[in-house]
């Protein structure tokens, strides 16, 4: 009988006590268009020759994380010192990417995968020791940022996934 009263009392207390509901924080949603990869040392420091093929081996990849195509016309990609590339008429397919290469070349549009854009520069943009990549929409709102540092002495292609 004593146990029945104790259990009954605990049950009554539990039913009349205020209830606090907690939930785990929701996972942060991915941006619709995000910086996916930065290749910042295209051939390794001792082999950088400023050729167009070397410049085009340095690039930034933007990824569309959604299931619908996204127009990024007029968006900008900048580094920490202010080098700026403005995307021309560009739509990234659903789950697709746009690869922005530093050098010169012919822009191409991918139907299901990668769209290629060329910055048209004659020198490198992304610093081998570290830099900040910022993507802004055509209104100037920051859409994504990726900071990287590299203290590595290895002489090979260096990249970071953001």
Would you write up a description of this structure?
This protein has a single domain, classed as Lamin Tail domain (Immunoglobulin-like, Sandwich). Helices cover 12% and strands 33% of the residues. It is built from two helices and eleven strands; from the N terminus they run αβαββββββββββ. The chain has helices spanning 2-16, 52-56, and strands at 33-41, 59-64, 70-71, 76-78, 84-86, 91-92, 97-101, 114-118, 130-136, 142-149, 158-161. A five-stranded mixed β-sheet has the order 8-7-2-1-11, with no helix packed on it. The protein has a four-stranded antiparallel β-sheet with strand order 5-4-9-10, with no helix packed on it. The longest helix is centred in the first third of the chain and has 15 residues, at 2-16. The N and C termini lie far apart (64 Å). The relative contact order is 0.22.
